[in-house]
Amino acid sequence: MPARHIVVVGAGIVGAASAYLLSQAGHRVTVLDAHAQPGQGASRANGAQLSYSYVEPLASPATLRALPGYLLSADSPLKLRLTADLDQWRWGWQFLRACRTAQVNATTEALLALAARSREELHRALPALNPPFHHRQAGKLVIVASATGLQQAREQVARQARWGCRQEVLDTAACIAREPALAGYARHVAGGVWTESEEVGDCHLACQALLAASQSMGAQLRLGHRVTGWSTSGDRLLAARTPQGDVQADAFVLASGVDAVALARPLGLRLPLTPIKGYSVTLPLADPGRAPQVSVTDLRRKLVYARLGGHLRVAGMAELVGSDLRIDPDRIRFLREAVEETFAGAVDPKADPQAWAGLRPATPTGLPVIGRCGPRNLFLNVGQGALGWTLALGSARLLANAVAEASDPLAEPFAPHRSVASHRPMPTGHRPIPSPRP
Question: How far does CA 43 lie from the centroid of its chain?
Answer without folding.
Answer: 8
